[in-house]
Amino acid sequence: MPTRHHLDRVGAAPERRHAGWPTPVTPSLSARTLYKLHHLLEPNPVYRRLAAWLERSPAANRMFTAAEERVKGATFGCRMCGQCALPATGYACPMTCPKQLRNGPCGGVSPTGMCEVEPDVRCVWLVAFERAETEGRAEDLSLLQRPIDHRQWGQSSWVNYWQGRDEGMWVSGDGRRQLPIIQRDDPGVSS
Ligand code: SF4
Description:
There is one protein chain. The protein is mainly alpha-helical. The chain has one domain. Helices cover about 35% and strands about 0% of the residues. The chain has helices at about 5-10, 30-40, 45-55, 60-75, 125-135, 155-160; strands spanning about 145, 170. The protein has a two-stranded antiparallel sheet with strand order 1-2. The termini are far apart. Mean pLDDT is about 85; it is low at about 1-15 and about 180-190. The protein binds iron/sulfur cluster (SF4). Iron/sulfur cluster binds near residues 72, 78, 79, 84 and 85. Iron/sulfur cluster binds near residues 79 and 157.
């Protein structure tokens, strides 16, 4: 779950914020810069060994996770869900959506693109689309994001990424044409 630190940070302006609700955040770095920087974090044997070592070393893992929280909190408003969607959302964090929607905006976006819950803040999903589109990555937003595992709140998403736990987090290709697993024909289920 979000830490106290997160709730304090996202609720920093109580006269405008809904207490404890996330607030849409526009990243402080450009999408172009972040797509480039992402290559530095791609899994490799060194990162995988580091991730495995961190998971065996609770104190070091806590320090590493705190550093990630600080960096990503300042840049993206990261709330440490542990399963990072940023590469598929133009690096706009969907968990800063007050409704925490991971598959696009709700129906409450104003005609001028403002959030329904925080009307003076731009909808994070519009921010995501605009940022992805400028880099030719708008199609990323058609990926179907699977529900997150809420047990991973507060974990390092970098460690989870290097450990391969993000695989399958979204449906590749045209997610709109793929049926959710629950709807696939199952010969073991009689009608
Ligand atoms: S780890 Fe989760 S909360 Fe943090 S930036 Fe990524 S998607 Fe957002």
